[in-house]
Design a protein that fits this description.
Blueprint: H1 11-18, H2 24-36, H3 39-57, H4 69-82, H5 91-108, H6 113-129, H7 135-150
Helix pairs in contact: 3-4, 3-6, 4-5, 5-6, 5-7, 6-7
């Protein structure tokens, strides 16, 4: 006895092809290729944002006291926007914490430079080694940043 396989025509596939559409698997592959094409420019934008944060808001920048809160917030947001390719490094979460800190500083009407410095150091460390850190150590570091960014001196 010979086995015969019968494959009924897939009407959905025929309809998609007839109307000029593409298969889901092909659309996913194209989307992944499109996203991958953004890797290099996203990583460059990430590095540029960190460098600009250090240049404008770093410890050795005397002019940082005259910088607007919005400037640091925008740079932190830029890091969040382009950090998809290093999501395993925690840099996106550190940038969210930085933005929370900036909101807090603006609300209080003064900079908490020690907390800003800690966040800048963390961004640099996570960019360089975040994906290599053990998950529990990286998460502990991020939790520490959240505590620093949410600290309210008047509550102490």
């Amino acid at each position: 006895m010979k086995v015969r396989k019968f494959r009924p025509p897939n009407r959905l596939t025929a309809l998609i092809k007839e109307r000029g559409g593409i298969m889901a698997k092909d659309a996913i592959a194209a989307a992944e290729a499109g996203v991958e094409s953004l890797r290099e420019s996203s990583m460059a934008a990430l590095d540029e944002a960190i460098a600009e944060i250090e240049r404008r808001f770093g410890k050795d920048t005397p002019e940082r006291v005259s910088e607007a809160y919005e400037g640091l917030y925008v740079l932190g947001s830029r890091i969040i926007d382009v950090s998809a390719f290093v999501s395993d490094a925690g840099i996106d979460k550190a940038a969210v914490s930085l933005c929370t800190l900036v909101d807090s500083c603006e609300g209080a009407g003064y900079w908490r430079w020690d907390a800003v410095d800690v966040h800048i150091d963390a961004l640099r460390l996570l960019r360089a080694h975040g994906a290599l850190l053990p998950v529990d150590q990286r998460e502990a570091m991020l939790q520490g940043l959240y505590q620093v960014s949410n600290y309210r001196p008047e509550e102490a």
